[in-house]
Amino acid sequence: xxxxxxxxxxxxxxxxxVPIGWAxxxxxxxxxxxxxxxxxxxxxxxxxxxxxxxxxxxxxxxxTTYSALDRLGAEAPLFGRVGGPPEGLSWEYLKEGYRRVxxxxxxxxxxxxxxxxxxxxxxxxxxxxxxxxxxxxGALAAKVSGAAHARVVWGADKFALVRERFLRLxxxxxxxxxxxxxxxxxxxxxxxxxxxxxxxLACGQLTLDCVPAxxxxxxxxxxxxxxxxxxxxxxxxxxxxRVQPDRPRVALTLGISAAGRHGENVTLPDILDAxxxxxxxxxxxxxAGQRAMLGPVPDNARIVDFAPLEPLAQTCAAVIHxxxxxxxxxxxxxxxxxxxxxxxxxxxxxxxxxxxxxAGLAVPDGEVTAAGVRxxxxxxxxERSFAxxxxxxxxxxxxxxxxxxxxxxxxxxxxxxxRR
Length: 420
Fold this sequence. Notes:
Elements lengths: L1 E5 L4 H16 L3 E6 L4 H6 L3 E4 L6 H8 L1 H5 L18 H34 L3 E4 L4 H10 L2 E6 L4 H12 L11 H11 L8 H4 L3 E3 L13 E3 L23 E5 L14 H7 L6 E5 L15 E4 L4 H5 L4 E4 L3 H10 L3 E3 L6 H10 L3 E3 L7 H13 L1 H15 L4 H12 L6
Parallel strand pairs: 1-2, 1-4, 2-3, 4-5, 5-6, 6-7, 8-9, 8-11, 9-10, 11-12, 12-13
Helix pairs in contact: 1-16, 5-6, 5-8, 10-14, 12-15
């Protein structure tokens, strides 16, 4: 069968799609990956076939120039009440959340690729479209072309939980108050092709969920568990990483876009200085362009531009990171205790779930200090219970079906496409 993978041009989203793309390819299916042009090289580097569509989105430029992230995070994190008492998710709260997230994020990253992706699917006629988080353009293209479609999630599926609550409250409102910006936006795009909105466009006909059950939010719908397989892109294991360290190793990584996020409270040099007297090897991944801000580097710190996370984590006693889903899920698969500094989107939910399972500690955004990072790290290394908790979660994650094992269910889903 023909399978189209679709993602907005976010590198981290691509990394999560590559394993299922290769599982389908090695099962004999024809696979292409569609995204905006700026991601084409990274797709090709994965060994999958890239198809550039539309034009590059301007989300990060606009977010930086016009403080769009401030609007998204007016109540940080976005939809931050998810995971709390259901009564906190009131109609007004959900309506206001959609007023922020639909125009300021989802439309901005999708609109520039919707029409070209729809045309591509009408021409190529895939049997199945698999789309990454917030890539609603993939769901629309599937509907227009008659293909079945599935969504992949790697983090806390808070937007599906929000949608469930929203749909329960919507019919209880007077007709003139039933504002649904998501359905209105997608419905308007579909009308140009003679189609109308259906609710599967919000969360897929099927969801491939890479989060272990003990960390789930309890979202309903057709969900298929799938093991998260770490993929870091092109990587070379350096010689120093092939040798076990002579003292405990701790990795410090704040992600590609998060490296300066805690700047108001603490800087990377602050954290390195706070850890300088500990009998550790601290491996900090710092992009070359940010090296100048470090100044003198403590004797126990090793600064690298990049190291493949999975091999690095396998040598570590703990990892300090920003709680991004790719980093967090890789560490789950390795079974290493985590010290998380969460901020946006699903990061606080994921980190809270890890803490609840006894596999790590978290410091909320706004409370991060160098001294606090040091204190939490010392506790993480001293108390054996955290390592035991991380090992339990690793075993749970590794017991989930692999991408290769879920291919048969995707083949069955493809048979449900309207063309069939």
